[in-house]
Amino acid sequence: MNEAQIDLAHTVALGLIDDEDHHAIQTIINSEDPTLCTEFLRELRDTREALAALSDATSTPPPPSLRTRLLAAVNTEEPPLAI
């Protein structure tokens, strides 16, 4: 796999693909080279696993006051007008 294909796998794992990326992904998946497809899918899986581990390691719970502040903000909004 070349660097552009690795970058594409990372882009897919982050959920940042566009139409051009869709075409490139289909080209890899439909490739007659099964090794390329396998390596791409492995890179995608490994990247998703790394992102999940990073998320778990760096997550923090919201402050206790957040729920109260959000509910207060919602309650102060004007209801929508019926037309």
TrEMBL record:
It comes from the Bacteria. Residues 6-52 form the Anti-sigma-K factor RskA N-terminal domain. Pfam families: RskA_N (PF22618). InterPro entries: Anti_sigma_zinc_sf, RskA_N. Keywords: Transcription, Transcription regulation. The keyword Transcription applies. This is Anti-sigma-K factor RskA N-terminal domain-containing protein. The lineage of its organism: Bacteria, Bacillati, Actinomycetota, Actinomycetes, Mycobacteriales.
